[in-house]
């Protein structure tokens, strides 16, 4: 392990592997979507039953229709005083309060969890290589955790990555999926040992590369288009080149970034306006 501490296989080694990722992309856990949906179904059915019981008490009160009963439905202190003679009423109120709180908290938790993206394909593949001590299904591979926990990471759609990374635009995802081997984190990889099939890629290095690449690409699309238009004499050809460069720019913004449609239209219009102004200005002529 080259001076790195080794951990007992099982929960200790899996926890150490998750914590060893400096970028936090290996913090992957199971959502339990089916179980969460079942819990919400139970809670809403329980509340429906409680609501029916409360409606039944209201129906009884409307049938009695005396001054004391009507006053208790308008004043909380009177309601408590009247309910003291019938503990089931106050027990129902407390049960509604607790169950409704649990139900709404569960709804908020599920809403928050639904907004967290699943792990990336490359990250999940690396995680499973570690979890199964190799490629799942190969001879000699076996899960770190036993029993029912051995199938925790089988369903990719039921997993959540608690830290998806700060830079998740399309260009970054493309580089991470296809060229991550160019951005290895040597410090973390030394801790894996020479026999490990896993290698860490630095997310910060990839983010820096994408930033430089974006600047270069933007400059090329702008000054490259101006240079080509400056050396073009035919007006019809200039119009065709403006259309071509504008299309390339729009495709670059739309495919390589997370820009919204309104942002794509706005930036493309600004880019086209710059080229048109250049062609129609003194420098262009």
From TrEMBL:
InterPro entries: DUF6594 (IPR046529). Pfam families: DUF6594. The chain crosses the membrane at residues 209-230, 237-258, 264-284. Residues 33-60 form a coiled coil. Keywords: Coiled coil, Membrane, Transmembrane, Transmembrane helix. Residues 11-276 form the DUF6594 domain. It comes from the Eukaryota. This is DUF6594 domain-containing protein. It comes from Cercophora scortea.
